Amino acid sequence: MKSVRKWAGPVITLVVLLVVVWRLGTGPFIGGMESVDGRAVLAAVAIGFVTTVCGAWRWRVVARGLGLRLSLLAAVAAYYQALFLNLMLPTGIAGDVHRGVSHGRHTRDVARGLRAVVWERGAGQVVQIALTICVLLIFPSPVRSVMPFVAAAAVALALGALLVGRLTGRGTSRWLRVRNTVVTDMRNGVLRRDALPSIVLATTVAVLGYALLFLVAARTVGVTAPISRLLPLALLAVLAMVLPSVAGWGPREGATAWVFASAGLGASQGAATAVAYGVLALAAFLPGAVVLVAGWLPRPRLPRFRPPEGATDG
User: How far, in Å, CA of 48 to CA of 53, rounded?
Assistant: First the structure.
């Protein structure tokens, strides 16, 4: 069963890519890569810095609520490395697991370190979904007709989660222990008064940064549609990128080709935009490779001070 789950993501990703190539050919992939120029790369690096700092700030806020020390500089370096690993390794979460384990070892509490990363990513995705729903309710998009139902379902789910969190229970069962840990982590790490506004602000800026990077990719491949028309498509594509992938490929290309085709902009333009986005994202988070290599290098040891022979105290 574990082997099935292990290979399911890569197989699905490969199938999606093969279907896109079969329907559109290799032209959008080649065109998307060739269209990336120096100005787009510089814009991607700048946008990537802002989004990475926002993610690191959000992680620091959550970790502090769970009682873990984490400086902003260390958080930014670890976040860069995690994003780079997420892009380069299967599943798309290997980098986050690594930073959670590393931070947990550094603070001598691996379980809490992993929980801080889980809550940081989870809170970010909840805010991202809420922001995406709001934009899709306002701007025209291929899914606008179903968004009122999606919004109602999201509100019902949030109310249900709030109700479960308010329920009290005592006992020693495993379920109750897990539930109490989850509720405590949410209250201390995410929902406390001085944390929630920071999490919402950091996530909003980061999501808008990813959408801006998508718009840069679209303009790079020659898409001339107005921003008001591209923004909903960008948020839909960015939302699809949280799905498991292989080095970032798969759901991104399939989702972008679909939403572009549904919006009348052409599936080929969508696929080319997704490919250009992938190249720009790699450039944006390439500093993570530097952090990774720096972690492998041996650290010089300072020589211990030894008093000269014959020296005496006093």
Answer: 8
CA distance 238 to 213: 10
- Which residues does 217 contact at the CB level (< 8 Å), separation at least 6? 32, 40, 273, 274, 276, 277, 280
Rounded to whole angstroms, the Cα distance separating 218 from 247 reads: 20
In 10 A of CB 159, how many CB atoms?
10
Q: What's phi and psi for 193, nearest 5 deg?
A: -60, -35
**Does residue 83 contact residue 242 with C-beta atoms inside 8 Å?**
no
Q: Where are the domains of the chain?
A: 23-292
pLDDT by residue (tens digit) across 137-164?
999 888 888 999 999 999 999 888 777 7
Place of tokens 């120096």: 38
Which two tokens mark 138? 């306002």
Q: Which residues have CB under 8 Å from 24's CB, separation 6+? A: 257, 267, 268, 271
Q: How far is CA 77 from CA 47, 82, 85, 147, 241, in A?
A: 16, 9, 13, 38, 22
pLDDT tens profile 116-142: 999 999 999 999 999 999 999 999 888
Is residue 135 within 8 Å of 238, Cβ to Cβ? Answer: no
DSSP 8-state secondary structure symbol assigned to residue 300: P
